[in-house]
Amino acid sequence: MRHPHPPSPERSAEVRRRFAEEARSERPDLATLCLLVGAEADGALDEAGLDAAQMELDRLAGQLPFRPGAPRAWAVALRDLLGERYGFHGVAADYRRLESSLLHEVLRRRRGLPIMLSVVWLEVARRAGAPVYGVALPGHFVVGFGPERGPEEERVLADPFDGGRVLGGSDAEALVAGATGAGPRPPLMEPAAPLDVVARILNNVRAWAAARPERSDVGLWAIELALLLPAHAARLRYERARLLVQRGEFSAGAGELEAYAEVVAAVDETVAEQVRGEARAARALLN
Q: In degrees to the nearest 10, what's the CA dihedral of 163, 166, 171, 172?
């Protein structure tokens, strides 16, 4: 992959405004939010590129059979189209690539992380009228077909990372055990809301950047987008402050550490004082 250049400050501000607006809308659109994440990562993803990605999802949905039937029939139809005909799938090496978390690149490469391939399945299936939802298993992400709250025997799971393989019996338990190293146990089957999916995607981007200190710029925008979500962990502000210090922005980082300490002080003064110490240390680096 070419190394994407960041968008201009003006473009970034517009992308973030739209991201925040969409995240706070009554029915946040998952594809739109994911594509805006891509636009923050890749300055080459302009309005035409955003539209093209949406049209590609529409095009794929138009190739599904008309209402194929029960949940299993939907799952098989998506597997046959996306997994077998178009070759969408994942491999271990995809975890080392940033583009595996960017929807426009996943559509282009037909490769990605489990959650991003699941976004493709979800958006294509949703456009075709399927009863579909994401399922955030521990350490893995899959797609469910059928009633979101109905009996489990009426629901079918598919694994887009494995080309859309329809899961049966204890397959989901085995996936969780393989991903977490824990013993097999019945996974939670609760549908994942769009904003929860986006938050998990941004967590993946932050984890990718954390393992590559030279890409702290990526970690910073991932945190800043996560802070635009209506519900986010207060600790994200602490992470952002520390990242600013790491990047050499000592004054800005110290100021944010001090602001975070004031919030924490209401709950735990000991932790607050530790954070204030970090702020003092950051300011000392200015001398």
A: 80
